[in-house]
């Protein structure tokens, strides 16, 4: 049972049509009208390299690069690497790969906040000289205690009124490593009584001896995000600094920093709602936990909402961009139905994926009246949605396999598949009739005996010969064995992070991965390349996994055929 108020899940009624406007574009339009940034539009995508990118980041990437493209502007890739202890080169590399794979290009504008460490330091010196920053000796706990609450003003630090000279001396000695980690901070001198807690003399620099992935041990003081970000934006000439809603309360500080430093054409921060998806967690910390504690097989596990996971699962850049376009940009948080993401993938793959026949759970069928040893090549269309995709040949012979679930010994009336005495069409082949079944000692059906009607070959005219069901099948002799990995939601709650749902890990779906190891494919799949996607007739879309070899084909189910989201839409 869903444990979340359905109204808070974003379904079709708030879906935007492609290329729709949004409030951010309205701001840009207005700025272009007033000439605010001399008609420039310059955005950036600023990931912190502490994890792999996920579908939420894709929304931000599409938004930032998309707006730049739409207004003939520029978008930078900037690594926000101000927090040395959590960042790694592996993440930088994966982020670059993922942004590129989505189809976006930062040209030569790849930057690191750490490139600006010296400039950031000099700007801090300027703030000290202008009596807008001071070195504070309070401990982290004392700073919290002095800060006050939403209803009570804070208390000024006893170090707030140090002389400029003392501050300069102490700040330089902080940089030179004369003090222990956490012993002192540099703080902005703003207002301890401000109704916005972020303006109560926020910390700008902390002492932290940890090696940085780019600057090594050159620094033992590191700037805080709220200080580094606006300055990095200004240095790069960013006009519209788009971020997620949780930074709304930080905007006055963003503006304060730029103003205090008197920077020209200060960029403006604009907040939008982050993407949340049902049956998914999106926090990088939690995703990292799932990887590090082996709940999944790495960042690119096809169950992960990471871009690398989606790619391995068979998602295309087109499907992801279409999804980001449809969900639109809003100012209030909501949860998007994951079925909508799947819907976008299905729409894209339906146009492009070649069709093949694969039996996931085989049941042996012998066509008793088909000559032994004979193999016939039948012509099969590759994609009914795309005539230019052409045809291929599939072998037909006396022994075949069909899907176990396509046979029932005692079927209900509306079962239009195979059962004793009934007829079905085998796709691209003949009409067959089930004559009798063979069972093992436990009474399990292990083999069907059928007859075929040679007059019913697919494509030939056959007046009056209609059957209700059409089944996919493979010829036993030529069949190619393969492993199929079927994925279900990683979590079994719509909102696994919901307070009432408890620890999100308790909501992991134990059945999120099912490996089918006795599957059989038509021989045309031999040598299928990693990353290529097919529609397995009547089953869904499947993508060849990188674990695959020429001898051992492994495919991931990208998405089943049935579109639950389209149903919701009605
Ligand atoms: P964490 O989960 O560690 O808090 P983060 O979400 O802040 O990480 P960043 O690497 O700082 O991750 O994000 C880079 C950019 O992507 C930021 O501008 C951020 O606002 C945006 N972003 C992150 N998550 C989402 C999301 N779910 N939806 C939309 N944008 C997002
Ligand atoms: Mg962040």
Describe the secondary structure blueprint for this structure.
Layout: E1 9-10, H1 23-34, E2 42-45, H2 55-70, E3 74-79, H3 89-102, E4 110-112, H4 117-129, E5 133-136, H5 140-146, H6 164-175, E6 185-188, E7 203-207, E8 221-223, H7 225-235, E9 240-244, H8 251-260, E10 268-272, E11 275-277, H9 284-292, H10 307-313, H11 317-327, E12 334-336, H12 338-352, E13 355-356, E14 358-359, E15 362-367, E16 376-381, E17 391-396, E18 399-403, E19 423-426, E20 431-439, E21 445-453, E22 470-471, E23 474-475, E24 480-487, E25 513-521, E26 533-536, E27 540-544, E28 553-560, H13 564-569
Summary keywords:
570 residues; alpha/beta; Rossmann fold; Ribosomal Protein L25, Chain P; seven-stranded mixed beta sheet; 24% strand; binds adenosine-5'-triphosphate; binds magnesium ion
Summary, kept brief:
With 570 residues, this protein is an alpha/beta fold. The chain is built from 13 helices and 28 strands.
For the largest beta-sheet, the strand count, sense and barrel status come to:
7 strands, mixed
Would you give the CATH topology of the largest domain? Answer: Rossmann fold
Tertiary shape: elongated
Please list the strands of the largest sheet in the order they lie side by side. Answer: 13-26-27-28-24-25-14
Low-confidence stretches: 1-7, 11-18
Q: Give the integer mean of the pLDDT values.
A: 93
Q: Which CATH-level-2 architecture of the largest domain? A: 3-Layer(aba) Sandwich
Total number of strands: 28
Radius of gyration: 31 Å
Proportion of residues in helical segments: 25-40%
Tally of domains:
3
Tally of helical segments: 13
What's the oligomerization state? single chain
Beta content comes to: 15-25%
**Gap between N and C termini, in Å?**
21 Å
Name the structural class. alpha/beta
CATH class of the largest domain: Alpha Beta
Distinct compounds present: adenosine-5'-triphosphate, magnesium ion
Looking at CATH, the homologous superfamily of the largest domain is HUPs
